[in-house]
Amino acid sequence: MSSTVHKYYIGLSFILGLFFSACSGSLDRESYIAWVQNYDNGLRAKQQSAGYFFDAQYLPEVYRQLQAGQEPTVQEDTASTDGLQHYKLTIGFEERGKDFIKGTGNIKSEQEQRLYYFSYRFQNDIYLEVGKDRLPAMLYHFERAGDLRSERNFVLGFAQKPDNKEVALVIESPFFGAQPIKINISKDHIPTLSL
Predict the structure, then answer these.
(1) Which of 20, 77, 128, 173 could form a disulfide with 60 if both were Cys (CB 3.0 to 4.6 A apart)?
(2) Is the pLDDT of residue 98 over 60?
(3) pLDDT per residue as tens digits for the range 12-71
């Protein structure tokens, strides 16, 4: 075989390899993190209601491991090591600078009630809707911020379901009005991580 033909096959193999890796949806670490955080890809959604904003983010296992500074043990979205599907929910007032715990009043007893409610009872007012099933939050952590941020984060875990590509995070809380807040998340077409 001539060297020209040999170089042609090597070049063609390289180009085909790049093409097939691009089609498979495999991303490097930084690109994977950016893809997961991008609102346009369906894993993250934001909505406003009753003077509040609600930012829900699905946390694939690979993403969680990368954010924790760990070497990923999987390349694609699979069940987490604890058997839960994880989400981060951020809630704050639409009006900047307004503290989430202080609320609209400055009465200390109201602030204490809000703090108690969001530390413990709010878990009962959140569920994940998968088809006709309502999954309660099995993992619930309210991040009590010591900084000056006005919004607050909630880390949530729900049981895994075999068919959970289209889900809705639903909040039915008296703090946010009479109507439930429904945030749709699409977990379709999550890329793999290239190692």
Answers:
(1) 77
(2) yes
(3) 333 333 333 343 478 999 999 999 999 999 999 999 998 899 999 999 999 999 999 888
List the beta strands (DSSP E) in the chain. 26-27, 44-49, 52-59, 84-93, 126-130, 133-136, 139-143, 152-159, 166-171, 181-186, 192-193
CB 89 within 8 A of CB 47: no
Q: d(Cα 73, Cα 75) in Å, to the nearest integer?
A: 7
Count of CB atoms situated within 10 Å of the CB of 65: 17
User: pLDDT per residue over 125-163, tens digit each?
Assistant: 999 999 999 999 999 999 877 656 678 999 999 998 877
Q: Are 42 and 187 in contact (CB under 8 A)?
A: yes
Q: How far apart are CA 184 and CA 167, in angstroms?
A: 6
The token pair at 71 is 């070497």
| 98-130 as b/e: b if 16+ CB within 10 A | ebbbbeeeeeeeeeeebeebbeeebbebbbbbb
Q: Where are the alpha helices (DSSP H) in the chain?
A: 3-23, 29-37, 61-67, 108-119
